[in-house]
Amino acid sequence: MSDEQKQEPGTLDNGASSAAKNYAQSEAEYDTAFVQIADTFVHAYLSNQHPRPSAYIEKYPAYASDLLAFFDSFLEQAWMLESLSTVAPAALPPASPTPRSAQHQRPAAEHHIHDAPGGYANAEDVDGSVEGDSHPSMLSLVAEHQALYHPDVSAPRQPARAASSISALAAERGIPVRRLAANLELSDALVHWLDATALDPNDRNSVPSELVERLSQQLNLSHADVETTLRASHPEAVKHLETLGHDHLLNHMTFRTALSHDDTLPRKHREHWDSAG
Amino acid sequence: MDDDADATDVNAQIPPDKTPEELLSIAQARVDGEVATLLALSASDLARRLLATAGSETVSFGALVYFIQLASAQASATDGTMPAVSLPTPNEMIDVLLERIKGLNEQWVRSFLALASKSLRTNREPTRDDLLQQLKLILLERIVVKHREKWQLFFRRSLFYAQRDAAHAFLRSQYGSGFTPAPPGSLDRILAQLPAETHDMKDELWIRRIDLMRCFQRLTEKQQVVIIKRYWDGLSFTRIADEQSEAENTGKKVGEDAMRKRHDKAIEALRLCCEERNEP
Question: Cβ contact (<8 Å) for A27 and B5?
Fold first, then answer.
């Protein structure tokens, strides 16, 4: 992108219309420029530079509306793939047969899609993907896969490892922090915060037992090992946990929002986690 | 750029002070106007325009989607109620559409494969063809089978959500019960705060997202900034307040409470907008 395309920040509409007037891009040119912006963001993301969507919106207001949809879509895909990173390859089901190319299916006839043999090339799968996105469906899917949130506690525990933080323990097990946070129903920020602080080693009552239990399950460690790790440094964490309240911490925190007494948490999720908890 | 070349983008080439409803009307009028112009052409000229993949001959994405849907409806109608318009086949036009969005789709595949190679510890990485086929099936389903009109007006945004859904469907098909659905994305978390009655739950989620994006454009610039930083950047209100204090540079510190109020007003505005849109 050239610097010329950087415009004064404005509303989405201002940006888009001024871009249209000033640059008179064709759709093809628009898409080419958009792809460059998107690739820049993706590269920064993959390089762990933690790019901020808002910075791109501000820098490229002409593309703001489409960028918001792109970021929304991309970040969800990134999360989906990260969530799979902890699935052991051996546990994976056999690969589906290579689907038949859709190149010659007749789009006007629904039954042609239904009839596509083998693999996932059928309308039910497509419909499933669509309806599976709705909140009730998504939450029911989560409920169906409780094992991911509450792994089998009867599985043999790994021996305690000398790691300095929760995220380090997770990393040793190939679990990204983001994944761990989601599984704990906490935020990434809170997991990092647990790393940066920790709990008072002399106060055995200060560690939320449910948090210990969930960390223990996720990291396949004994409760004592988790507590030892949590008690690695500072008592400030305890105060903060108490401020938040254990119930709030464990039931009301959502995946990406945290540490802000989140009164904006979607009601459906609060109800879901309340009932699940 | 042709006057009608970007009818699919509701924001393009129009004054900035329009409401979402006015933007929609303008975009709809553009597509309607372009369609009327194209329908006045001879059959051969119309086919040439519809099948053009580059250059000044190309029609807008919105018009192309309209004609794909028209051709599909004609092919399905057996009672003679559809006016006969000589058109290329839906398949031919779908292929043109795919060719024209090749760059956007390649970008998606490139990104997805890069993410997969970084995240998946398996040699069963998805292939480019797998992903593109899954996406094509979703495009066929939404544009052709269900005749979703929103593709005529919000093509790119609809495409990005289709790409996300193609990734979701692909991973579900490959990993089954080992696959955990993603937590709600930015728009979905906003949607979840709006009362259920403000949107038709029968609508597919991507349609509600597109509608919400339109309502989002009604917000003030400051409200938009708070919403974007809150839901896309994932920042706390404290952090947003700090950043806005610096950005607004009024010499007065913006408080966390002020950010909360601004956020709440934005959500309320979105709720009202969604309610208006659902009135009969």
Answer: yes
Please list every residue in chain A whose beta carbon sits closer than 8 Å to the beta carbon of residue B184: 135, 138, 255, 266, 269
Domain end marker among B161, B178, B195 = B178
Q: Count Cβ neighbours within 10 Å for each residue of A100-131 and write b for 16 or more, e otherwise.
A: eebeebbbbbbebbeebeebbbbbebbbbbbe
Pick A107's closest partner by Cβ from B110, B140, B221. B140
Which of residues A40 and A26 earns the better pLDDT score?
A: A40
What is the phi/psi pair of residue A162, to 5°? -80, 95
In this structure, what are the phi and psi dihedrals at residue B9, rounded to the nearest 5 degrees? -100, 110
Report whether A181 contacts B213 (CB < 8 A): no
User: B154 forms bridges with which residues in the sheet?
Assistant: B9
Distance of residue A204 Cα from the nearest chain B Cα, in angstroms:
30
Q: Is the domain of B40 the same as that of B69?
A: yes
Measure B17 CA to nearest chain A CA, in Å.
8
Tokens linked to B101? 């969005």
Burial (CB < 10 A; 0-12, 13-18, 19+), residue A268, is: middle
Domain encompassing residue B266? 186-277
Q: What is the ipTM score, two decimals?
A: 0.79
Nearest by CB to B171, which of A84, A98, A176? A84
Q: Residue B17: list chain A partners with CB under 8 A.
A: 13
Whether B164 and B273 share a structural domain: no
User: In the numeric block, which tokens belong to residue A109?
Assistant: 């006839």
Do B40 and B158 lie in a common domain? yes
Using the beta-carbon criterion (under 8 Å), do A9 and B221 form an inter-chain contact? yes
Residue A133: Cβ-neighbour burial (10 angstroms; 0-12, 13-18, 19+) = buried
Mutual orientation of helices A123-131 and B128-139 as an angle, nearest 10°?
80
Distance of CA B51 to the CA centre of its chain: 23
Q: Residue A73 and residue B1: Cβ atoms within 8 Å? A: no
Are B213 and A106 a contacting pair at CB < 8 A? no
Residue A16 pLDDT level (bands cut at 50, 70, 90): very low
* Nearest in space to B1 (alpha carbons), one of A256, A19, A188, A68: A19
Which of A38-47, A86-95, B120-129 has maximum average pLDDT?
A: A38-47
Residues B23 and B142 in one domain: yes
What is the number of structural domains in chain B? 2
Give the separation between CA B226 and CA B138, rounded to whole angstroms: 33
Cα distance between residue A115 and residue B50, in whole Å: 29
Give the pLDDT of residue B212. 80
Which of residues B178, B199, B222 is at a domain's end? Answer: B178
